[in-house]
Every structure is written in C-alpha cells, then in structure tokens.
Design a protein that fits this description.
The structure is a homodimer of 345-residue chains. Chain A is an all-alpha fold and 345 residues long. Helix content of chain A is 70%, strand content 1%. Chain A is built from 17 helices and 2 strands. Chains A and B meet through helix 3, helix 5, helix 7 and helix 8 of A and helix 3, helix 5, helix 7 and helix 8 of B.
Chain lengths: 345, 345
C-alpha cells in the first residue's frame, strides 16, 4: 500500500500524562541513566541498534506504573524499582521491535522503525537481544521472583501477539477473543508492572494483589482506547492516516461493534474489506461508525474497565500509591474525551 | 533461487553420535516426556506450533552435554539435569526458529521450517514464546544462578547471529571475526550446557570451570566442522545441495581459506559471487578448494580445537563425566574423517 504505515499505538503526546508524570521526572531520569548504562553490556555491533530503540521508547507508561505502584514519597526511587522498571521497558521495547517487523511499519513516533532502519533480519535478533538483556537484569535480584514473573508475562504477551497475528485478515474473531488477546498482549505487562512495583516497594500482599488487578484493568482500558483512537483520533496527534487496523485486516473492538450493528448487505462489504478482497472505503466506514454509535459503545467499555481498576484500589485509599494510580484513570478518561466522536472530521 | 534452501546445520545422522548416546537413551526419554509436558503451559494456538518445533529438534547435542557433564552413573538422571537440558534445548530451538526466518530456509531435517509452515510473522513470536518458556523453566531453580547464566548466554548467541547477519553478502570479515561469531553463536550454548550440567551434577568448581572450557572448544570445533560439511559433505547425508553458505553470501572458514589461497584474478571472481553480483560457480569453487588444500587446512582447525577441549579435561581423568566427554571429541574427529576430501564427488 502507498500510505505511510505507522504503528497504531502511542496515539497521545507525552504531555497527556503530564500531571502525574511531572512527579516522576527524577525517576525517569534515573531510569534513563540506568538504561544507557546497559548499552555497555551489548556487543559493539548491537550497541547502536539498542540505543536507537531506547531512544524511541515513547511515554514509558510501564515504568511509570512500576514507580507509582511502589511509591513512598518524593524522594529518590529505590534502586530495585529502577531496575525492574528497566526490565519491563526492555521487554516492551523488544515486543515493539518484533511487532514492527510483523506490521511492516515504517515509522514509530515519527522515527523509522528498527526493522526499516536495520532490516527485518537484524530486527528479529535485536528484539531477542533486548529481551535476553531484560531477563539478565531480572536475574540480578536476590531471588528468582522477578525472573519468574517476567518470563511468565513475556510468554503471555507472545501468546497474545500470536493469536492476533493468526487471526489477522480473517473475521474469525469474537468479542471474547478480542478481550483475551488484549488481556495477554497489553494488560499482562501493565499488571506485572504494578505487581513488581508494589512488591518491591514493600507493600503488604493484599495491596500487591489489588494493585496487580488495577494494572490489568487499566491495561485493558488502555488498549481499547488505543484501538478506538485508530478510528477516532485526530490525525495530527496520531501522526498517521486513520483506520490502519482495518487496512491491515486487524479486527478490533470498534470493527466488531460496527459489524454487529450494520445491516446484512453492508456487513458483507465490510467483511470483504477485512479479508483484504477489496480496499477499505474508509470515509464510508467512519461515517457508519458515527451513525451506529460505535464511539459511545467502545468508550463505554473503556469506562467499565476503568471503574473496575478503581474499585480494585478502593480499600487502600490511605496508601501513598493510590491517589496517583487513580489519577491515571482520570487521565485516560480525559484522553478518550479528547477523541472525535465524529470520526475523520 | 530455485534450489531447495535447507539449513546448513545438522549434517550428520543421529547414528553418528550413537556410541555415547546409547547410554543417554533413558535421559533423552525423560527429557522428551518433560518437554511434552511443557506444551500444556502454552496457549492452545501455540501448542501445536511448539509441538511441531520440538519434533524437529534433531540430535539434542546440548542436552547430551548437560547429561554427560553431570554424569554420575547409569542410574536415572537428576531432575535438575532434565530441567536444565530442556532449558538449553528450548533456547536452541528458539534460535533455530528465528534463524530459519532469516535464511528463508524451506526445510530443516527434511521437514518444513516453522517459518514456512506458519509464516514468518508467527515464527518470530513462536521463537519468542519458546525462549520465554526456557527462561521460565530456568527461574524455577531455587537460586537465580541458572537464569543469570541462560539469559547471559542467550544475549551472546543473539549477538553472534546479529554480527553474522550484518556481514552476510559482504567480504568485510576476517578470520578473527569468524572465530568471534562462532564463539558467540555456537560455542556459548555448548559451554553453558557443560557449565550447568557439571554444576548441577555437584562437581567441584575447578571441574565446572574446566568442563565449561571443554564445552566452548567443542562448540567451536563443531561449528567449523559444520561449515566444512557445507562444502565437503555427502549430499545424501546432508540432504541438500552443497555450498549453500556461498549461495547465501555467508563467509565461513573454508571460503576465507580459499580466498587467501586463490591467485588475485580468481579471488576477484569469488568476491563477486559472495557479494551476490553473479551466481556462484559451485563446481569450480569446490575444485579450487580441493586444489588449494582447503579441506586439510580447515580440518586442522577442528583438530586444534578438539585438542584444546581434551586438554581442558586432562587433570580430571578420574571423574565419571570425562571418558564420555572425551569420546565426543573422537566422534567429531570421525565425522570430519567421513567427509569427502575431494568435494562434490
């Protein structure tokens, strides 16, 4: 296809999370120093490639969840939290590098993807090396707990991506499949970030468990928002044409809802587009989404997940991490509100 | 290219290692049961794919090194050894799955590669999932030692593969580069197999260190042999046309030696072939290898590494693992001897 193919994630600018993230500035600075130091551990040929990826890492939501879930006060972050934040970020970066190969994406956050910059072959191995380094850092904790958690999560993330890849370009996907995929591919890393942050922050087990549940629902909400933004985002914010998920045959929640709500003959046309048998008529689909109330339906799903996330923390109001974690939910609500309910306008 | 592109490794039949491997039969059977049990841990969509890979795993040299390095007697293997054998084998399988994407290989041991069977996208993720599962098993040991060792080795294996990939189709490679690449991509997993086997087998640190050194040199020897077999193997044994390394622009030791020994004008022609500017004249190159004594030179390098491997164990003659490890060196010598000194005949 001739359009510039850009990854559908990372729709918002770094400023969106500004309120919470301002307090995390020193933490993120320490994380950055830590990540840069890791580069020395790579063979010379990989160092530049790894550096390139760390540069493009974006908003660092997962490290933020680690720091916030282990939050005590505004003093310097515990070194354990910095290390584990690096672990989850490196796992995330590794999956992005591999995703971009799959999607044949050209750009990520306005920069050429590693796959385009170094070739898909090198990108496969670069992702492997980033992932191996993440596990290497995880193994430096005194017990095997971090390693166990990270390797298990990574397996789930891969599983989610595989299921998504196998279903691409088919309509063989139900709402349940969609939720299972995003639970695996996105919510799992959000969950483990909150789990490890609260655990290493020294919080009691009952909070660790509830913070993990919070992370999971926040992750589901975030992915649904991300999929919604692919159709309803403002092009200048998301830096790409709308509807890339439809173009690439990826059936997300907005498309599932639209399929459900279209009359039979119209649905057949949409199915042809998903199957790649004809080019998507994007303006028509966006208009249909508007007419059938897809935005409100999908935004409602985000809201439902956010409510579950908040309720997971409701018995821990007095704990230092809770107000800041709650604020993340409001931030995401605000982001959903700033999408266009009338798509593509 | 129209020839069937088959992975250049695994040239020998399983029988070649028969003498040593006969005693390992119960160990390999336990490993197989253990690996099959792991499949249950994968999401349903990946289970079949993972099963397919485990089926094609070949000779299981690395698990053999684990069992032999931790050898006490003919009784049932320690469960720790079975687990760690599974870890190194899964890491190896993950790298094969990713290698086959890179090489666009059709077949591995007469079976379609995972990349051909499921598509390169799914194969990227399948490799990731196998690797994540390996680390998950590694994290189940009581201490972080296995995780640390395995994640570090994997990083090195990836580094070796990256350097090799970046140099493919160029003549920008020295003898030192070649040895560095095979040290990273092959010898590292051989080394760690001996390290973990002897360590978990309860042997004293000085033996663990020497066994690791043995493994490293055996690995280097094995890779040089493998590269030699790509030109001097018997086609019926290796199940593919000779010279795939040259066809794919991979400069291995036989080619480095040939380049060194060819007169200037002939060398220029070979360089053109490596750079992919003209199709390799394989029978000519094979004949030149014969005339310039490439076989003897490269076989000499295998021999030199095997001598170093054996000398690493020379002060431990009384220990149970040593005679069997030594026998592996003789087996590899025998395999080199069974190649054709006159290539392609």
């Amino acid at each position: 296809m001739s359009v510039t193919n850009t990854r559908p994630s990372d729709h918002s600018s770094a400023q969106d999370f500004a309120t919470v993230f301002a307090r995390l500035k020193p933490h993120m600075a320490e994380l950055d120093v830590f990540l840069r130091k890791q580069l020395a551990a790579f063979e010379p040929e990989i160092r530049d490639m790894a550096d390139y990826c760390i540069d493009t890492s974006g908003k660092r939501i997962r490290p933020a969840l680690v720091f916030l879930s282990g939050w005590q006060d505004d003093s310097a972050p515990l070194s354990d939290l910095v290390r584990v934040a690096a672990v989850v970020e490196l796992v995330h970066l590794a999956t992005l590098v591999h995703d971009d190969i799959m999607d044949e994406a050209d750009l990520r956050r306005s920069k050429r993807t590693a796959s385009r910059e170094y070739g898909p072959e090198a990108a496969v191995l670069l992702g492997d090396a980033l992932f191996a380094h993440a596990l290497h850092l995880a193994a430096q904790f005194p017990t095997t707990e971090v390693c166990l958690a990270v390797s298990d999560s990574t397996r789930k993330v891969c599983a989610g991506e595989i299921v998504q890849t196998l279903r691409r370009g088919t309509i063989n996907i139900t709402r349940e499949d969609y939720f299972r995929v995003i639970d695996l591919k996105t919510a799992e890393l959000f969950r483990i970030s909150c789990f490890l942050g609260s655990r290493l922050g020294g919080f009691p087990p009952v909070f660790v468990e509830d913070a993990s549940r919070f992370g999971r629902h926040l992750g589901i909400a975030y992915q649904i928002y991300d999929d919604l933004a692919d159709f309803f985002g403002k092009e200048k914010n998301i830096g790409k044409t709308l509807g890339t998920d439809l173009i690439s045959g990826k059936v997300t929640l907005p498309l599932l809802v639209l399929m459900d709500r279209l009359p039979v003959e119209e649905r057949a046309g949409l199915v042809e587009e998903i199957l790649g048998r004809r080019a998507p008529d994007m303006s028509k689909r966006l208009l249909q989404m508007h007419e059938t109330g897809v935005f409100a339906a999908v935004a409602g799903e985000v809201q439902a997940e956010l409510v579950q996330a908040e309720s997971a923390l409701s018995t821990h109001i007095g704990l230092a991490p809770v107000p800041m974690l709650m604020q993340l939910c409001d931030t995401l609500r605000h982001q959903v509100g700033s999408l266009r309910a009338i798509p593509g306008v």
